[in-house]
Structure formats: C-alpha cells, structure tokens
Amino acid sequence: MKMMYTLDFHSAANFESFKKLTLPKNVEEQQQYRLNLVRNEVTEQMFDFLNNMSSSADIRENTDLRNSIVLMVKSITHFIGLDCAVYESIIKLRYQLLRMLNVDDASNEDTWQTLNVSCTLTQLFCSVCCQSNDLDVCHSEEWLCPSCGKQFEPSIIEQLLIERVNQLLVAYTIQDFKCTRCGTIRKHNMSLFCDCCNGVVENVISPDEFRFNLEAIKKIARQHDLTRLAELCEWTLF
Predict the structure, then answer these.
(1) Any domain includes 106
(2) What range(s) does the DNA polymerase-epsilon zinc finger domain occupy (predicted)?
(3) What pLDDT does residue 110 have?
(4) What's the confidence (pLDDT) of residue 12?
(5) Are 201 and 180 in contact (CB under 8 A)?
(6) Which of 4, 15, 169, 197 lies at a C-alpha separation of 20 to 30 Å from 24?
(7) pLDDT at 163 over 90
(8) Which residues contact 57 (CB under 8 A, 6 or more apart)?
C-alpha cells in the first residue's frame, strides 16, 4: 500500500518549516547544492542522452546530427558554466561529452562561439555630414549615421542589400567544390572525386549557408518594409 504525503501551506508556521527543509541556509550551502546538482543529475542526464542517441543513430555518419549535438553540448555547458561555483565541474563534463563525440581538443570545434547574425554595410556614405561609416543593419532598429545621428535613406539601404543578395547568388552559382577529406579545391568540373585522395567533393558554400544568409536579409526586409528586397529574397528562395 502506497502512502501519499501532502504539505499544508495554509499556516505560516508550516510554510516556514518547509523552506528551512528545502532551501540552503547560506551562500556556501547554495553553491554546494548547485555543485551537487551538476555532478549528479546534470552529468547523468547528459551521458544518458548521448548514449541513447548513439544507440538509435550513427552519429559519426550523420554529420548534421553530430553537429547539432555538439552545438547543444557546447550551449548547455557554456551557460551552466557561467556559475563560478560549478565552472570546473562543467568544464570536465564538457570535455568528457565532446570526447564521446570525437571532437578534437586542439580544434576550434570545442570552443563556444556566440550565435549572432550580422549583416554589415561597409563605407556607407552619409549625405548630411559627408562621413563614411559601417552599419550593421541586423543590430540597428533605426539606421542612424554614427557621426551625426541622422537617419539613412531606407531606399539606399534597400538598394545596397539588393546588391548583396545578387552577390550571394552569383557566388553560390559559380562557386568551387572542395574535397571533404583533404580540403583540396576540385580542378576538373566534371569530376565527382578528389584528384589527390579520391575523396568526395562538396560545395564550398553549402545550400544551408546560402539559405540562412537569404533568410536573414529577408527578415530585415520585412522588419523595415523593404518591398523590393523582400520580393527578391522570396523569388531567390523559391
């Protein structure tokens, strides 16, 4: 027979006694509680997750799946590691998890990188103060000149972004192919394999990267009501 326990919070005395039982009393106890949480529950759940993924799918052969898991591991360990009390433990956990994913310690793959989108227009000329400045159109709600504070003409920004889309399209169309094994650029256009190591060749600019850049510019067009730019992005992505 199972016995059910309930807590009565109707009285202030019961509530205060419950807090004393569950909450750490001081800073040292709080830090130790978080440390135990990382060493026990977080570590166990992360290892179980990777083991389950390894048993259900081959991570080594599925590159997209592996990259997603590596990104997830780096994200979780990075943000938990912002707590100084658990930093050393989370660094050890990240090392063990990335080793399970065959990530080289000497490479940049195990390093956390801020996930942000940037689209910078360089040497943008201001007709008011006659100064040239760089402008990140993704991180600026209002496109103001850094020198005088006057707003840039949206039509000028739109035309520059249209040229950027055309440049992306041309670069993707006439791009080279490189070997996935040794990184050598393909010399013969009709060859499916590398001349040096017989490895498989792939695009230098992947379709996902090309689509991601266009989606970012399309989002800018919608936020600032740039009709021509939005139509161009939709037509290119179609």
Answers:
(1) no
(2) 174-230
(3) 53
(4) 47
(5) yes
(6) 4
(7) yes
(8) 65
Q: What is the pLDDT of residues 71-86, one digit of tens each?
A: 888 888 888 888 888 8
**Under a CB-based contact definition with an 8 Å cutoff, are residues 118 and 136 in contact?**
yes
- The tokens describing 29, both together, are 């106890």
pLDDT tens figures, 80-123: 888 888 888 888 988 888 888 877 755 555 565 555 678 888 88
pLDDT above 70 for 5: no
Residue 10 domain flag = no
Q: Residues 133, 147: contact at Cβ < 8 Å?
A: yes
CA 111 to chain centre: 12
Q: Which one has a higher pLDDT value, 46 or 20?
A: 46
In terms of residue numbers, what domain contains 97?
Answer: 23-101
Within a domain: 147: yes
Q: Compute φ and ψ for 2, nearest 5 degrees.
A: -90, 140
| Whole-number average pLDDT of the chain | 80
Rg of the chain, C-alpha, whole Å: 26
- The reply to whether 130 and 174 lie within a common domain is no
| Residues facing residue 144 across a β-bridge | 151
Sign of CA dihedral 53, 55, 58, 60: positive
Which residues of the chain form beta strands (DSSP E)? 120-125, 132-136, 177-179, 201-203
> Taking 60 as the threshold, does the pLDDT of residue 124 lie above it?
yes
